[in-house]
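Box S1 | Example of a co-folding query
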Amino acid sequence: MVNCVHKFGGSSLSSSERYQSVAKIIIGHTQPGDCVVVSAAGKTTDTLVSLWQSYQQQDTQAVADILLQLNNHQSDLIEQLLQADLKRSALKTLLEELNIIASLAQSEQLKEAQLLAHGELWSARLLAAYLQQLNVHACAHDARLLFTLNDGELRHAQNKLQCNSVIDANKVNVVTGFIAANTLGDTVTLGRNGSDYSAALLASYCDAKQVCIWTDTQGVFSTDPRKVKKAIKYAKVCRTQANLLARLGNPVLHAKTLSPLKNTNIKLAVRSSFDVQASPTHIVKEGLAKKKRFITTLQNVDLLTVEGLSEGEVASVSQLIQHSLHHFNHNGEVYLVVPAAQTYQVINYFAGRANISESNLNGCAVVAPEQVIGTLKLQALEVLAEQTIKPRFVHQDNGYVLLLTDQFIDSDVQSTLHDKLVNKGQEIAIIVAGLGNVGGVFIHQLADQFERLSGDFSIKLVALVRSQEMLFNPSGVNPQTWEKQWQLEAKKYQSNDLLNAINELDYEHKVVIDITASEQFSQLYTDFVQSDCHLISANKYAGTAPTLWYQTLRNNLAERNLHWRYNTSVGAGLPINFALADLQNSGDKITRIEGVFSGTLSWLCSKYDGSVAFSELVLEAQKMGFTEPDPREDLSGRDMQRKLLILARELGVDLELDDISLSALMPVELAKGSWDDFIGKKTQLDAFIEEHAAAAQAKNAVLRYTGLLEITCDKVIAKVGITYVPNGDALANLTPGDNIFVINSKWYSDNALVIQGPGAGSEVTAAGVHSDLYWLVQNLK
Ligand SMILES: Nc1ncnc2c1ncn2[C@@H]1O[C@H](COP(=O)(O)OP(=O)(O)O)[C@@H](O)[C@H]1O
Ligand SMILES: N[C@@H](CC(=O)OP(=O)(O)O)C(=O)O
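Box S1 (continued) | Returned holo structure for aspartyl phosphate
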């Protein structure tokens, strides 16, 4: 039984390393009986097309050169992937085939489709052989034995029988994309990019459950992500919009891909063979995804008017020129958008019924929900006018507007169009984890924040998450009445339930806001990023995780163009990370940061004057909610050690947590045992502090718990611990509970930049999280 038909396009097979990655994906994602449809490796079809053109122009030298080029490319792949007999046999067959092409060219008997078919045949054979070499039961199939067309129409019943008898239920079936045969057994092709269509056909003939198109982007984006950095990846795109995009010439899916799936429940996903962890885009039935906004570009096309054009003719002429064609009615005329290189063939096909209306056009199409198309058309015209691009032809239709221009729409113009037409008006889903003091205040402030940001985005709170229970509502939870809703609807959950629910969200942007202090929750960050979530954390664990994990997370974020803000993980609402980033972005070089980064330790040290025992102050702080539940977390200095690491990494210094030397604000032996044990030994703590306070006083100084990061050209000093701060120093005159950051840099060398203020507290921390959210939203615009 075929569970899934996978399709790997040319971009996924462009080198031997890519074949190796594809084989790994196949091993990890297929079961016996599954099919793998492959396209020609890299740009092989383009090379074969130029061979065909040279042959037609009778340029024998060019034909020979291209044959050599093909030979080099294919034999390199074979040499790099296969061994022993498999290699010898593959090289022998390749040489024989190239010789046959050469002699057919010489005797003027070359046929176009038969020639183009070689790209896919080579890929399927090579991949199947490579899989066999890896001990995977795999076989190669030539799709000309599976798909037959009669007069351009697929013979579905016969093909279904053929597929079901040929596809081997015990093997991975590697099938050539793009090609088929006619009833005479001659090769025909399914049009450029046609392997997507082959995969969908095969899935429908074999009753597969799903089709997975593996490509070089992570799915379907709002516009070409290679050209526009802020392109948005969509989790779900409905079939009509995917189809429309394809008809307008967008390469991410072939125009006919969806037709075999029309009356079936076969699922279709587009995902990256370069980044297997990234979540796919699902192409879903009408009504299962909201309509999205897209911009797709067109290059070098002609606009033809055709008299009495029928659907059948569009299909045949598309087949003839190997390209899907878009047609529409405009002011009573029927127009066809034709790639300029094929105009001549199309005009000939229509034998006097087609005329060129406009030639040498470029442009773009905006695909969007019907109700906004009119507005987007005006905005697009405005953007083009600002760029002095004057459209020569504008056509507004169901769900799209086509703007054909003289000038080429380069990636700058495409980005501006995207910023103005697509980025605004999107929906942002917010997932808040941690509903304690800070979380509670943050949520209550959300309603106002939504209103403030509503000019650009519609923001919805979709989930509230605690360690055991969550409330998930994709259409939004009211931040003013969430507690009531929580009582009624919160449910127990496992991490996977949360991740699946996030994956299902049909929002353009998703943000996980972590206001927990949970290490376990921070470990889900990699999964959130794979599900395309931005991150905002007050939690310190991810920022201080081992470098390998931390760096992988950062790389994944960067690859997906996602943001991670964590300003409140150090100094609560104080703008310390903003300041550091700003200084560095403006060319400054930070050399030293010293300070008190713990509100708890600041309060304890500043309050302590010997009149009340230190342990009493600890208990008082605990009662007021200033400390961690077990105040030894604070006294150990670990919390400040984490904050110093976050600051160090912010400055590009590569450190692990344990590279920061640490001495605790308590005797080491008190760290062990229960809280009651600790209280039983509190006199040891008091004696320890008294001793340090006396030593400080003897030096005309006060006892403080500080962190220090010093960066010189040859070394980094990073430590947290007890310091004796001279009276009069900024660190000595601290208001109890305040944090202070004393920053020295190239610009602030003698006279330090000082940031000081409350470093803890629900209001300021929640405000800091809002400031991160505001920053994020501004950057999504
Ligand atoms: N909206 C879009 N979403 C994703 N990719 C797009 C989009 N528009 C254009 N592209 C381009 O489509 C390319 C994928 O199509 P193609 O090269 O035909 O892939 P394959 O070789 O896998 O069949 C991407 O590399 C990307 O540059
Ligand atoms: N190789 C064919 C068919 C195809 O679908 O290719 P790709 O999957 O690389 O778009 C082409 O280049 O048109």
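The first strand starts at residue 4 and ends at 8. The domain at 4-215 is CATH 3.40.1160.10 (Carbamate kinase).
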